[in-house]
Structure formats: structure tokens, C-alpha cells
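tool_log.txt
---
The assistant was asked to compare two proteins side by side. It first ran the structure predictor on the initial sequence, then on the second. Raw inputs and outputs are pasted verbatim so the downstream comparison step can read them without reformatting.
(1)
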Amino acid sequence: MIRSSMNKSLNDVDFTKRNGLLPVVVQDKNTKDILTLAYANREALENTIRTRNAWFWSTSRNKLWMKGEESGNIQPVEDVLLDCDYDALLYLVDSKTPICHTGNRTCFHYLIKDNDM
């Protein structure tokens, strides 16, 4: 677990922007791989803190969901970090299963090729 002298509470999180949704970067705590980008509202963050599993707000289904509730690919959360503006989160997970709905370990598996890059 990450230890910091600058701990914050749920009450410090700024839910006033983006209609109450915060972007959540999900990162594997061991490999440091970025696994996905999702969104959380206050209830999703509360559930994540309470259960220690990754919860999100689905912008496509317009509902609260726990990652893995259908696929079984639950993502145990070791730490939740809040950014310096208090409006974005990082979930550090102990990922043992794929996180992407395609079955890939990470949602970031497409390389954009451009001759100018």
C-alpha cells in the first residue's frame, strides 16, 4: 500500500465537474500496466472503498457496476489515489485476470500507426 503524509478523505473529492463523474485510471500495482480508463461517481467510489473491489459508473449503460460482476474478472483495489485537483482517481489493483471486455489483459491494446509519429 502507498503511504502518504497527504491523505485525503471522500469529502475532499470534487464531484462538481463532469456531472459528478470522475475519470478513473486503473493500474496494475505490480506491473504498472495501465489497464483501463473508466468513470466513477460518488456511489461507485464509496463502494470501491467499502468492498475493496473496483466499482464504476457505466456511461454506456447509465448504471453503477462492479468490474467482474458478469465476467468474473474482479479487480481487487489495493489503493485509491486522488489527483492534485481532486477530480480524477487512480485505482491500484492486484489484477489476476483480464480487465478488457475483449478478453485482453488491458483495454489499451491497439497501436495507432502514423507515418508522422
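(2)
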Amino acid sequence: MHNKNKKNSVLLDLKGKNAIVTGGAQGIGYGIAHRLAEAGTRVLIADMNKEACDKAVAELKEMGHESGSYILDVSNEDQVRDMVNYVIDNWGSVDILVNNAGIYPQIPLSTMTFDDFKKVINVNLNSVFLTTKYVSESMKKQGGGKIINISSIDALHPSMIGLAHYDASKHGVWGFTKNSALELAQYGITVNAVAPGGINTPGSHANSSSEIPKEQMEAAIKAFTAKIPLHRFGEPDDIGKVVLFLASDMSSYMTGSQIVVDGGALLN
């Protein structure tokens, strides 16, 4: 159905929709969960961090939004399948899936182990395959749905030394987004990606899993900020607003696309 006669308020109204946001307990994920909840979506925050999950759900409920949490490792197939079944059994459907969970320990290629590489691919890329596989089966039965993958500008251009595994995973997410969009379009399921640039999150400035010296990291962040035409890092809400657009009828004729949200960083 074409949306030319729908008002903006109707296009952005997501009441009655159910969403899963992986890695939704803090940072970009919470920014996304908050915007979806504000539009009327019932949001399941799927994350490993129980304490952060509880805090996020409590905050959303305090604002009057429906929300729940599910603790899991997104790279574990059994746990992902169980989570999808949990939402369908308890809420009836999954209408929106946001694949946001990701890690980025900075390790130069020279000291990176195969296990280091596999862990990042597991969390950042394999999880996107698993959630998409199980959620799309449910979406097919209900006649459609929205899948939004959080990639990175690193899917288009490498950012810094120490992120070879991360960049490989994000190029993979972008490739998977396009191919799954092609396959799922016939079922009324759209698949799009958002590519954030530098975003202020708890992990962006203090990366405890980094093997890069702190002073070197700070210098790299300062140099990166200087190159951003808007001269600042983004906020989680900058991504949340774009995900809301993709989750709503505002983006009804979009699939297999990637929206860059980077303050102009790639212009340099």
C-alpha cells in the first residue's frame, strides 16, 4: 500500500509493534531502544550485561514505555533461537529487529590471534546471520517486518590500525544486508543498514579491551574529531532517530540501503 495519504504522525506511529534491539542496554543500542519505545514500540533489550539491561528497562518503564530484557550471547545459536521464541510466545510477533550488538577491541594485526579475530566475527557478523535467520522465518508468517543492521563507516573505509577484524565484520554486515534484502523482499521484509561514524558512547573513549596505549588512542580520537566536518562526535540519539525512520513507514520503499550517519567524516 502506498503511503501518500498518511500523515507524518501516522507514518511514525509504531504502537502495537514489537522490537528486538541487540546490545540495547547502553550506548547506541539504548539510544535506538529509547526512540523506538517513544514511537509506541514494545522493546526487548537483548544484551549480555544484566545490570545495564535492568537499568535500561527501568528507565524506559519510568517514562511510560513497555519494555523487557533478555540476557544472551548473540553469537550462540541456541540462545538466539530461544530469544526469538520467547518474544513470539510472550508478545506474539517480532515486527522490528535491530542488530546493534558489536565489539571493537583494538589489536594490531601483528599481535592479533585467530581467537581474537573469530570472537569479533562471531559477535559482530555471525550474530546478524543468526537473528536474521530466526526472526525472518517468523516475519514471513506474519506478512512482513523491518530488519535494521548497525554497520559502521568502517564498512566503507577503514578508520584506524588495530581494527582489521572489526572492519572485516562490518564489511560483512553490509554485504549480508544487501543479499538478505534481495531474498526477503518478496515476503514484505525490508533489510537496511545504518553506518555510524564516531559516536559518544561509554566504549568509544575508554576502550578497556584495547591493546593500543591510552595516549595513542586519545591522539587518534582527537585527530579523527578534527577531520569531521561537523567538528564533533555524534550522540546515540543521532543513530536512534535514523533507525526510527527505517523502522517506520517513512522508509516504505527502501531495502538493501545503508544510511551513513557520520557528521561528514567520510567526506575526508
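---
observation on (2): The chain has a mean pLDDT of 94. The domain at 8-261 is CATH 3.40.50.720 (Rossmann fold).
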